[in-house]
Amino acid sequence: MLGKIRERLRAGTLLDRVVFTVAALSFLAVCPMLVARIIERNWFMVTLDAILLVMFAFIAVNVMRGRYLDVSRRILGVFMVLGMIGTTTMGDTGNAYWLYPGFIAIFFMFSPIVALSIAVLVSVTVFPFLYERFAATNLFTLYATLLPTVLFIYFFSKDLRAQHKTLSMQATEDYLTQTGNRRAFNDEAQLCIDALNKSNASNVLILFDMDHFKRLNDAHGHVTGDSVLKDVSNIVQGCLRSTDKLYRLGGEEFGIIVRHALLSDALGIAQKIRQSIDNNKNEHLPDYTVSFGIAELLKNESVEDWMSRADKALYQSKQNGRDQISIA
């Protein structure tokens, strides 16, 4: 059981691990509190703690199964906010110290600015209740220490999200052409397979590569070759719909995943790209052409099988004289 949990968390994102950890630790933290409330016969707090336990368990299970991740994160954030307000206003003075871990956790549930706004709102909401129970010096100390804690985690969370976004882009983006890379392609292709198996959503793959690219590199140099790759990427991007995505799969080979489309739609896109390349000659670059292979995703087909059929069609275009479009 623990092995499966570790495997699932290792496969998930950083945010998945944070949400699961917060939900699991919150569940464990609330359990003894629930027992204490029962012993004290504080039935309002018993009800509140029981609801929190159910929600924390629900969120942890869903994260483990990879379902409703965004919803689980927001639900966890909302219940943590309600839990902080409820335990601080209805419980004894010691419950006020739950504001520290609570404020830290919500920065992982929401964007930094939203989390900061929530922290301010909660602080203002609970102040009248704490004012009645805390000595003035203790209340001042509480808020004086909460302020730097919230500000620190705000800037830390903001920086962490920026770094995570940068790393995610580097992991899924081709540096030269600014298109998706092979890893991003595999992820998107798997999503297409899942969509087809669940809802019969039609998706089409267009593979294309540069004709005689090695000859072009040898004649003009690798710098010019790189410029040609960037040029064709820009032309292709201008021919795609907002739902289509371009990927550089390696060397001079590219792939386009055409979502929710038929073979005729993909054929039209390939023809548009071919025509655009012919009509947009760059006087600073050597002339070039590309060859295409098109394959519609079939039921129970793997990413490798889908690519293999498109690649065979691409090879057929090469055999037919290049600068051609073939359909698997």
Word description of this protein:
- With 328 residues, the chain is α+β, with helices and mostly antiparallel strands.
- It folds into 2 domains: 2-172, no CATH class; 182-327, Reverse transcriptase/Diguanylate cyclase domain (Alpha-Beta Plaits).
- The chain is built from 12 helices and 5 strands.
- The chain has helices at 2-11, 14-40, 43-65, 69-90, 99-109, 112-133, 136-172, 182-199, 213-220, 222-237, 263-279, 303-319; strands spanning 204-210, 245-250, 253-258, 290-296, 325-327.
- The chain has a 5-stranded mixed β-sheet, sandwiched between helices.
- It starts with a helix and ends with a strand.
- Its EC number is 2.7.7.65.
- It is an enzyme of class 2 (transferase).
- It catalyses: 2 GTP = 3',3'-c-di-GMP + 2 diphosphate.
- Pfam families: GGDEF.
Indicate the overall shape.
elongated
Number of helices: 12
Structural class: alpha+beta
State the share of residues found in helices, binned by percent: 55-70%
Largest sheet features: 5 strands, mixed
Number of domains: 2
Total number of strands: 5
Rg from alpha-carbon coordinates: 28 Å
Strand order of the largest sheet: 2-3-1-4-5
Termini separation: 44 Å
Report the sheet-strand fraction. Answer: 5-15%
Secondary-structure element series: HHHHHHHHEHHEEHEHE
Flag low-confidence runs: none
